[in-house]
Specification:
The protein is of the alpha/beta class. The chain is 35% helix and 15% strand. It has one domain (3-209, 249-275, 306-328): Rossmann fold. It has eleven helices and 13 strands. The strands form four sheets. It has a seven-stranded parallel sheet, with helices on both faces. Strands 7-10 form a two-stranded parallel sheet. β1 (38-42), α3 (47-58) and β2 (62-67) form a beta-alpha-beta unit. The chain starts with a helix and ends in a 13-residue tail after the last helix. It binds nicotinamide-adenine-dinucleotide (NAD) and uridine-5'-diphosphate (UDP).
């Protein structure tokens, strides 16, 4: 367990002794101790989910992390395992789950293109059947449920930057569709459970987020470039590197997510959460070389099919409704991420298993 992780987490050992409203009046809403909530994080062992679990455990909530470990490993949450207010459950969210909770953060889904295209049918099942299972649980428990949606719902956008009102340009039959259309269908389900059944929902469209605990072999651009730079291997730029992305540091992202969950019930989203700073992929490669002190060469590789040309969030709504905007510049966040990559043994990480 990295020492920094261990020291950040306040151990709450007496929580199991506390009585919750649901234990006394199953099916009724509202905990006896409103500040302490029972919170389910699906995909809680992943890159973003593990940081979310950490924040919620630190705040004293009773946290259940559910994960099938397709793209993650237990080491991401190992430092939380001794906490009295943290539980880890191996479960695949395409199957129903019966828990009593006050809030659900639905983060389970492979997110990197290589991971979600590995088994595209499973990706669609995770998005759609996972959403139905979590919405069903929220409906039964009268819990609030937040969906981790994505900027991919905008596809290869013709509107720039992308506001929430933009309906997107997704290729429904391309290799990215299992993820993009899966997430779009999940948004539809969230809105329909909200309108038809009064489920208290939130939808957040997350733009490219990076930071410590990204899977080093996830194939995403930040992890690839840092891993390649530190190993002195060629930096693989897909296409000419003129395509752009906007990179949000994980702490900013988690803050935005928690604000959205705790925001007013009449603001269900969707809301964009991302950093509006826009960089070409070539600029990212050059910054990675500079900050890591690497002498790696830049090499061009073929551009993947349907790779979006430009992406930048319009975050006006998040600023207005949540008082949120990112605080961490790319240079600062990338420096911290490079430090983390230096501190871990990359060979300990495995590629996704075919048996998940
Ligand atoms: P990640 O791959 O690190 O985390 C996803 C987690 O979900 C992993 O722990 C994985 O094992 C788990 N999982 C996958 N399928 C599952 C299933 N069927 N049942 C249970 N667990 C399952 O990715 P991440 O970057 O942390 O992304 C988390 C969420 O945020 C995803 O829903 C993703 O779509 C969304 N998101 C992330 C980004 C980003 O840039 N990181 C951008 C947009 C949206
Ligand atoms: N990319 C790249 N080299 C890599 C990995 C990715 O040039 O080694 C590019 C990719 O083609 C895309 C951008 O970086 O244009 C972001 O890719 P990523 O997979 O991180 O996320 P996306 O936003 O495409 O889902």
């Amino acid at each position: 367990m990295p020492a920094a992780d261990a020291s950040r987490v306040r151990r709450v050992t007496s929580l199991d002794m506390r009585v919750h409203y649901h234990d006394v009046f199953p099916g009724e809403s509202g905990p006896l101790m409103p500040s302490i909530k029972r919170i389910l994080v699906t995909g809680g062992a992943g890159f973003l989910g593990s940081h979310l679990c950490e924040r919620l455990v630190e705040a004293g909530h009773d946290v259940v992390c559910v994960d099938n470990f397709f793209t993650s490993q237990k080491t991401n949450v190992a430092h939380l395992l001794g906490c009295g207010n943290f539980e880890l459950l191996r479960h695949d969210i395409i199957h129903p789950l019966w828990l009593e909770v006050d809030e659900i953060y639905n983060f389970a889904c492979p997110a990197a293109p290589g991971h979600y295209q590995y088994n595209p049918i499973k990706t669609m099942k995770t998005s759609v059947m996972g959403a139905i299972n979590m919405l069903g649980m929220a409906k039964r428990c009268r819990a609030k449920v937040l969906q981790a949606s994505t900027s991919e719902v905008y596809g290869d956008p013709e509107v720039h930057p992308q506001p929430e009102s933009y309906r997107g340009a997704v290729n429904p039959i391309g290799p990215r569709a299992c993820y993009d259309e899966g997430k779009r269908a999940a948004e539809t389900l969230f809105m329909d459970y909200h309108r038809a059944n009064g489920v208290n929902i939130r939808i957040v469209r997350i733009f490219n987020t990076y930071g410590p605990r990204m899977h080093p072999y996830d194939g995403r651009v930040v992890s690839n470039f840092i891993r390649q730079a530190l190993a002195g291997e060629p930096i693989t730029i897909f296409g000419t590197g003129a395509q752009t992305r906007s990179f949000c540091y994980r702490d900013d992202l988690v803050e935005g997510i928690i604000r959205m969950m705790n925001g007013p019930d009449d603001f269900v989203g969707p809301v964009n959460i991302g950093n509006p700073g826009e960089f070409t992929i070539r600029q990212l490669a050059e910054l990675t070389l500079e900050l890591s002190g690497s002498k790696s060469q830049l090499v061009e590789k073929p551009l993947p099919v349907d790779d979006p040309e430009r992406r930048r969030p319009d975050i006006t709504l998040a600023k207005q409704k949540l008082g949120w905007e990112p605080q961490v510049a790319l240079r600062e966040g990338l420096t911290k991420t490079i430090e983390w990559f230096r501190s871990v043994k990359i060979s300990d990480y495995r590629a996704p298993t075919p048996n998940y």
